[in-house]
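Continuing from the previous page...

OK, I double-checked the sequence for DHA2 family methylenomycin A resistance protein-like MFS transporter against my notes and this is the correct one:
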Amino acid sequence: MPLEHRRSVVALALIASFMVFVDSTIVNVTLAQLATHLQASRAELEWSLNAYTLSFAALMLGAGAIADTLGAKRAFLTGLLVFTVSSAVCATAGSMLMLNLARLVQGAGSALLLPSALVLATASATDEHARHRLVSWWAAAGGAGMAAGPLLGGGLVALANWRAVFAVNLVIGIPAAIWALRSMPAVVRRMRRLDLAGMGTATAFIGGLVFALIEAPARGWRDPAVLGAVALTVAGLVAFIVIERSVRAPLLPLKLYGERGFATAALQGTLLNFAFYGVLFSMSLLLQQGRHLSALVTGLLFLPLTGLISIANLGSAPLARRLGRPAVLAIGQAVLTLALLALAWASTSSVVWPMVLALIPIGFSSGLLVPTMTAQSIAAVEPDLHGAASAAFNTSRQIGGAIGVATFGPLLGTAHNLAGGFVTCAIVAAAASIAGLCVTAFGRRTPVLVPSAACDS
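Thanks. Re-ran it with the corrected sequence; updated structure tokens here:
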């Protein structure tokens, strides 16, 4: 591959990673405007975040196989097109229903875009060292996107309104698509069986669970729609297990969960994202609706949280090599627990700076935990299961984040008592972190099958 094309492919992969993870955090600062401009209810605001997470998580399990079957370039362009067009629909949405349906499609585009971008970038590497370096850059671009989301969103809302948060994806996506068509080489396709039944039942399980958690507080658990969602969740889970045990190329090899190291890492990741995204959602509403701060100021206040994640990502691997992954996990979860309790206390103050100080250790500990958990999930299984383990671990994290947002919405309470509701949310997040610490203690004696010096963010 010519040097110019290699550079283009790497640049496009970094852009794709940045875009996908920006959209996982950027919408948080638009919640107050969505509530005002589109008369969004609390449940609809939760869906504006979870619709993206839901389809992203459901399709991520099979995204690698789809990229191999379609070809990485075709999957990349398809994902980029879906992501960009759905962003345009979001930007022009006249109702929350239209916005949330478009967010659902946007998440599907992200699930196609992310793994195909990584395949294309690593295919351009000339040796193993270069491949590892490219993976690190790709992960760092995603971390930078997640960190930049609230600040970028706050700036766009301040300059225009909430629609600009979605419209900016067109400014990036259209030139990226043209660039990819002109300079991105094709990668040899590898025919793999697509577990479409597994994808469908996984989507039914995750979607039913999230729908029930979001809608039950407003509709009641006896509402026919909620009962139907609960039934769909149970049926989807049972069908998924049956299918994955019988198909030749399962979407999620169930033997992964027979490895205690992987199972504990997946549970830890779920608990971490439950706390992190739940706090991000509830604090966004507290600052904008409860304290009447602008979207720009809210984005700036989140910078210690999101910015330190990328910094801590870089130090996680050396620290894990020196202390061992279990020790890093235990330290990170203990710090996170104390910081969340401090955040609960700080939120009762009439000034904002104590909350900002509490966000610093939350961001740093989260930045240590994610790559360490990722490395642990991969190191606990045989090499031929690394791809499946990575997809399953990240799907578990996405589900945890979706459940966190769905759970913290009702806990936050009404607009008249957001301060008291946020204290409850922060304490529940701390309880989830304590549960993660207990899981770490349980899994300390898990054997590691494959040493892994590198950590992904």
